[in-house]
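Many introductory courses stop at the sequence. We go one step further.
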Amino acid sequence: MDIIRGVSNIFTTTMHLDNGLQMWRYFPSPKLKKFQEGYNIFKQACTNHIYQAFDEIKVHIEWQTQFISFSAKIHFFGNAKML
């Protein structure tokens, strides 16, 4: 739900920030603050999901590779230093 809220904030404020005088470049504005909040929410939620997916993949690979030989691991990973 955070991703949707963040993207919604980004989309609703982008039109106001892109059109007309872009005074937000020089003076802070409520629209810019809302855009930045939306961006931070989206970035944090996506980062959390990406790291969670990496952890799941790492566990899955570790589980699969525990049953293969050392030479097969070297072949699979391509470098013995990674093991």
